[in-house]
Amino acid sequence: MTTIAQLLAQSDLPPLEARMLAERALGKPRAWLIAHADETPGAAAEQAFAAMADRRRQGEPIAYILGEREFYGLDFGVTPAVLIPRPETELLVELALERLPADAAARVLDLGTGSGAIAVTLARLRPQARLTAVDVDYAALTLARANAKRHGVSVRFFCGDWFGALAGERFDLIVSNPPYVAEGDPHLALGDVRFEPQRALVGGADGLDCIRAIVAQAQAHLLPGAWLLFEHGYDQAPSCRALLEARGYAEAQSWPDLAGIPRVSGGRAAVNNLK
Ligand code: GLN
Predict the structure, then answer these.
(1) What is the model's pTM?
(2) Does residue 111 sit within a domain?
(3) Is 100's pLDDT higher than 60?
(4) Does 248 fall in a domain?
(5) How far apart are the first and last CA of the chain?
(6) Which domain holds residue 28?
(7) Is 8 in the same domain as 135?
(8) Is residue 236 domain-shared with residue 192, that is, in the same domain?
(9) I want to staple 237 with a disulfide (CB 3.0 to 4.6 A). Which of 43, 191, 193, 254 is the partner?
(10) What does residue 190 show for φ and ψ, rounded to 5 degrees?
């Protein structure tokens, strides 16, 4: 008879991953698994674990197998239609929160919302804010909507290309985690990224196509002095600041993630941008 402890050990997966899959297969939390490590799992649970472990050994991301990933302390549904929310994107959320007063009805736009992790987190933590989120992919929007519902927040969702659905609208803050990996980047052939939607990752030959479009178009959708903040690649901060400066944004700057890598850049719309 195989015990729970043996099942995990024999799975050939890193202990943390084996545990996450076992929690799901047995429908029990970590503490239960530890307390019951010497018991045998039921046949159905053992089979469910084996099937998930097999998928994982073939490279499929844990987040897609479980259909969930935690971001900023909240659980989000994820599917292969969207990028898996990443810890470095929490920096973007923090910078946005710093600019959103708790007591004002700020209009906030999230471009390329994917799972909705950024927009839904901001809506949860700033209940007064009015969130709008767009994505070009309808399947992503369906998921983002479900995530908003799951966390009890109301977000206006639009299907469209950046500002395509937002003619004439202006915001107090625009955030985005756009595709920013360069075409052919070897990193695209590694690990979880292989299973993620290319359209959510790749931003043209130098990775900056989407950032260029957003920086160029956002001016017309920001209120005077409002911030545009976006995530980018580890080596793109100088180019991003140059793009912001060339378009007349004030206070163009970059911020490091927890690994010390400049990961988010932004600037403020010119105060005379309403013409
Ligand atoms: N940081 C991600 C990666 O390197 C890319 C995310 C994105 O393109 N927005 O895989």
Answers:
(1) 0.95
(2) yes
(3) yes
(4) yes
(5) 75
(6) 4-58
(7) no
(8) yes
(9) 254
(10) -120, 145
Beta bridge pairs of residue 181: 202
Q: How many domains does the chain have?
A: 2
Residues 246 and 130 in one domain: yes
Nearest in space to 238 (alpha carbons), one of 251, 254, 217, 214: 254
Together in a domain, 125 and 218: yes
- For the stretch 19-46, pLDDT in tens is 999 999 999 999 999 999 999 999 999 9
Is residue 21 in some structural domain?
Answer: yes
Specify the amino acid at residue 44.
Answer: A
Packed helices 43-57 and 15-26: angle between N→C axes, nearest 10 degrees: 140
Q: What percent of the chain has pLDDT over 90?
A: 96
Q: Is 48 in the same domain as 86?
A: no
Top mutation candidate among 113, 206, 231 for ligand 1, by most atoms within 8 Å of CB: 231
Which residues have C-beta within 8 Å of that of residue 71, sequence separation ≥ 6?
85, 89, 90, 117, 121
Please give the distance, rounded to the nearest whole angstrom, from the Cα atom of residue 179 to the centre of ligand 1. Answer: 7
Does any domain span residue 65?
no
Q: Write the CATH number for 167.
A: 3.40.50.150
Task: Give the integer Cα–Cα distance in Å for 172 and 126.
Answer: 13
Give the binding-site residues of ligand 1, using a 6 Å CB cut-off: 83, 86, 177, 179-181, 187, 193, 201, 231
- Residue 184 CB burial class (10 angstroms; 0-12, 13-18, ≥19): exposed
